[in-house]
C-alpha cells in the first residue's frame, strides 16, 4: 500500500532526476519463487482444523514458510522429498498409499481427511520480498515478515534525495575523469572514485590506463591509491612527481620502520592508534589521491554524507555503538577499502569486481552495463555467488545515459588512435 | 651482469639476424638479472613486417605457463586471462574464491582456450594453507563472535590510551 504522500514524493523524484538507482540483487530476491508438488488432505469438517494442524506438524514437520492449512486443505508432504531421494540415491516420488501408511503409523487420524488426497503446487521456498510474498500467497498463504533493509533497497527508500544528489555529483566527476583520461578496452574501461560515506570525502579518483600497464583498470588503480593512503601501495604511480612521491615514500618508510622495530607480528593498541591518526591526517591533507595526477585540477563536488540508515524498530542502533564498531572496523580494514563506497563508470569486469570484493568495499554504484564481461549484473551477479566471504551492495543506472555516451566516446577515441 | 655485458649478448643476437639476411637487431628481456626472452628481427623469415626483435621477445614472455599451488581467485584468473596466458597448473582447489571452476568459471567470459589442470600435489598445498590458518595470521580480522563481545572493552582501553 502506498500512501498518497509517497506517490507524490516519487513523482517529484522522476521529475527532477533522469535516472534511478537500480539495486542489483540476487535472483533469490527478484525471481518468482519456485514451486513444489505436494499432497494435501481435504478436511471433512472445518472444526477439526486446529487438531489436524497440531497433529501433522508434530508428525511431519516442515513447510515453515507456509500456512499449514488453507481453506480446509491441509498440507501433508512434498511429492519429492529430499530425504527420500538422498536415501535411495535418486529422485523418487512418494506414493499416496505410502504416505497414508506413514501417517497412520505415526498416529495421524486419517479419518479427519477425505479419502482421496489431492496434489497441488505450493511455493517451495520462503519468499524474501513483499512482491514475492504477494505472488506466493496467490498460490498458497505464506508466513512472511518483510526485511526492512531488503524492502528499502527494492523501493529505493534507502536513499533520500540528498543522498541521491551526492551520488549523482560523484558520478558526474567520474564521467569527467573518464572523458579526460580513460584508456581501456572493450571489456573494461572508465573511471572510479572511492568515497568515505561518513563525510562524503572523495578519497581516490582514477582513470583506466591499460596503455601503461595491463592491470591498470580504474578500480585496480583506485584500490592501490587507497593502499597508499594507508601507508602502502604497490605501484609507482605518478612518477612524474618524483620528488614529492619520494618525500612521501620516505616518510612512510620511516613510519613503517618505527612500527616494525618491535615484533612485527604484534600490533599494540598504541601502534594501531598511531596508525589511525596518521591515516586520518592523510585523509585531511592528501585526499583526493588522483591517478593520473592531472585529475587533481578538476573541480571536486562538495562533501555530503552518504550514510543511509534503515529505520529499525526499537532503536537498536545508538550512536555510540556505531562509533565503536567503526573504529574497530577501521583497524580491521587498515589494509582494505573499509566501509567505503565505490563509484564506477561501467559495470566492473571480473578483475575489478573481485579486486573490490577483496578490498571489502561496502557499496558499488555503476553507470552503464558491461555486456561483454560485466559480473555485477550482466554475465553473472558476483555478489550473490555462494561461498564468497564478503558481499557488497550494488546499484546500476547512475546517470546511465551520460555514462553510456562517454563509454562510446572512449571507444571511438581508441579506434581513432 | 651489467648493461654493457647484456648489450654484448644482444649484439650477438643482432649478428645472427645479419647472417640470416634480416635487419640486424637483437633484443633481450631481463628480469632479476636473468634473461627471460631473446629475440631478433625475423621480418623476412616470416614475411611479416611487424616481426621486430622486441615483438618476438613479447611473444616469448607471453608464452608462459603458470604454476600455482592454489587455484587462482576470480580476480587473478581474470588478470591472467587478459594477459592471454596459455596454461595454468594448480595444486588444490580454492573453495572460497576460485576463478577456474570452484566459485566462478571466469574463462567462459573471455572465450579463452586456456588449458587448466588442477590437483597437482594438491594435498601438500592444502596442508600449507591449513598450517597457516591454524597459526596466528597477524592480519586476520578478529572473529565476529569475539568482536561483538569485546567491543565495549576494547574501545574503553582506547580512550584510556588517548
Features:
heterodimer; A: 417 residues; alpha/beta; Cytidine Deaminase, domain 2; 7-stranded mixed beta sheet; 11 strands; elongated; B: 162 residues; 3-stranded parallel beta sheet; two-stranded antiparallel sheet; disordered C terminus; metal ion binding (chain A); Cytidine_deaminase-like (chain A)
Shape of chain B: elongated
Largest interface: A-B, 35 and 32 residues
**Poorly predicted segments of chain B:** 146-162
Distance between the termini of chain A: 55 Å
Number of strands of chain A: 11
* Annotated CATH homologous superfamily of the largest domain in chain B: Cytidine Deaminase, domain 2
What is the gyration radius of chain B calculated from CA atoms? 25 Å
Order of helices and strands of chain A: HEHEHEEHHEHHHEEHHHEHEHEEH
Biggest sheet features of chain A: 7 strands, mixed
What is the spatial order of strands in the main beta sheet of chain A?
Answer: 1-11-10-9-6-7-8
| Main CATH class of the domain at 159-233 and 286-310 and 336-416 in chain A | Alpha Beta
Overall pLDDT of chain A: 82
Distance between the termini of chain B: 54 Å
Number of helices of chain B: 6
Report the oligomer. heterodimer
Q: Which series of helices and strands of chain B comes N to C?
A: HEEHHEHEEHH
Q: What is the C-level CATH assignment of the largest domain in chain B? A: Alpha Beta
Major sheet details of chain B: 3 strands, parallel
Amino acid at each position: 500500500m502506498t500512501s498518497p504522500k509517497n506517490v507524490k514524493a516519487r513523482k517529484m523524484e522522476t521529475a527532477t532526476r533522469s535516472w534511478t538507482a537500480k539495486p542489483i540483487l540476487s535472483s533469490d530476491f527478484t525471481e518468482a519463487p519456485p514451486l513444489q508438488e505436494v499432497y494435501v488432505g481435504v478436511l471433512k469438517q472445518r472444526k477439526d482444523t486446529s487438531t489436524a494442524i497440531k497433529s501433522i506438524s508434530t508428525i511431519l514437520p516442515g513447510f515453515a514458510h507456509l500456512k499449514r492449512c488453507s481453506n480446509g486443505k491441509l498440507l501433508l508432504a512434498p511429492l519429492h522429498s529430499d530425504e527420500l531421494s538422498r536415501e535411495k540415491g535418486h529422485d523418487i516420488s512418494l506414493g499416496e498409499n505410502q504416505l497414508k501408511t506413514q501417517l497412520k503409523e505415526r498416529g495421524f487420524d486419517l479419518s479427519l481427511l477425505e479419502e482421496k488426497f489431492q496434489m497441488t503446487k505450493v511455493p517451495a521456498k520462503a519468499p524474501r520480498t513483499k512482491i514475492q510474498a504477494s505472488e506466493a500467497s496467490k498460490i498458497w498463504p505464506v508466513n512472511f515478515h518483510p526485511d526492512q533493509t531488503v524492502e528499502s533497497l527494492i523501493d529505493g527508500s534507502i536513499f533520500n534525495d540528498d543522498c541521491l544528489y551526492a551520488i549523482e555529483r560523484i558520478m558526474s566527476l567520474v564521467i569527467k575523469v573518464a572523458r579526460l583520461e580513460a584508456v581501456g578496452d572493450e571489456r573494461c574501461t572508465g573511471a572510479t572514485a572511492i568515497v568515505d560515506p561518513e563525510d562524503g570525502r572523495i578519497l581516490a579518483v582514477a582513470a583506466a590506463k591499460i596503455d601503461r600497464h595491463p592491470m591498470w583498470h580504474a578500480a585496480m588503480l583506485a584500490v592501490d591509491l587507497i593502499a597508499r593512503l594507508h601507508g602502502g601501495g604497490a605501484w609507482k604511480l605518478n612518477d612524474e612527481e618524483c620528488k614529492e612521491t619520494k618525500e612521501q615514500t620516505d616518510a612512510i618508510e620511516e613510519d613503517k620502520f618505527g612500527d616494525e622495530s618491535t615484533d612485527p607480528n604484534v600490533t599494540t593498541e598504541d601502534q594501531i592508534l598511531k596508525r589511525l591518526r596518521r591515516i586520518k591526517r592523510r585523509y585531511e591533507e592528501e585526499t583526493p589521491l588522483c591517478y593520473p595526477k592531472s585529475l587533481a585540477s578538476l573541480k571536486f563536488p562538495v562533501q555530503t554524507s552518504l550514510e543511509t540508515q534503515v529505520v529499525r524498530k526499537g532503536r537498536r542502533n545508538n550512536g555510540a555503538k556505531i562509533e565503536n564498531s567503526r573504529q574497530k572496523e577501521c583497524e580491521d580494514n587498515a589494509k582494505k577499502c573499509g566501509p567505503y563506497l565505490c563509484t564506477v563508470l561501467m559495470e566492473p569486469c571480473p578483475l575489478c569486481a573481485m579486486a573490490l570484493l577483496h578490498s571489502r568495499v561496502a557499496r558499488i554504484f555503476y553507470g552503464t552495463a558491461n555486456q561483454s564481461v560485466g559480473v555485477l549484473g550482466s554475465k553473472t551477479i558476483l555478489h550473490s555467488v555462494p561461498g564468497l566471504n564478503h558481499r557488497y551492495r550494488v546499484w546500476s543506472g547512475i546517470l546511465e545515459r551520460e555514462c553510456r555516451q562517454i563509454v562510446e566516446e572512449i571507444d571511438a577515441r581508441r579506434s581513432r588512435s | 651482469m651489467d648493461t654493457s655485458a647484456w648489450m654484448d649478448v644482444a649484439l650477438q643476437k643482432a649478428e645472427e639476424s645479419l647472417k640470416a639476411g634480416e635487419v640486424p637487431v637483437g633484443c633481450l628481456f631481463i628480469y632479476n638479472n636473468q634473461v627471460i626472452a631473446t629475440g631478433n628481427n625475423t621480418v623476412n623469415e616470416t614475411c611479416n613486417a611487424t616481426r621486430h626483435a622486441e615483438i618476438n621477445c613479447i611473444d616469448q614472455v607471453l608464452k608462459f605457463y603458470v604454476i600455482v599451488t592454489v587455484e587462482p581467485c576470480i580476480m587473478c584468473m581474470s588478470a591472467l586471462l587478459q594477459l592471454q596466458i596459455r596454461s595454468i597448473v594448480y595444486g588444490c582447489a580454492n573453495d572460497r574464491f576460485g576463478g577456474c571452476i570452484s566459485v566462478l568459471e571466469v574463462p567462459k567470459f573471455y572465450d579463452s582456450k586456456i588449458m587448466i589442470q588442477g590437483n597437482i600435489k594438491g594435498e601438500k598445498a592444502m596442508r600449507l594453507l591449513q598450517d597457516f590458518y591454524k597459526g596466528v595470521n597477524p592480519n586476520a580480522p578478529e572473529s565476529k563472535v569475539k568482536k561483538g563481545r569485546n567491543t565495549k572493552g576494547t574501545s574503553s582501553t582506547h580512550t584510556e590510551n588517548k
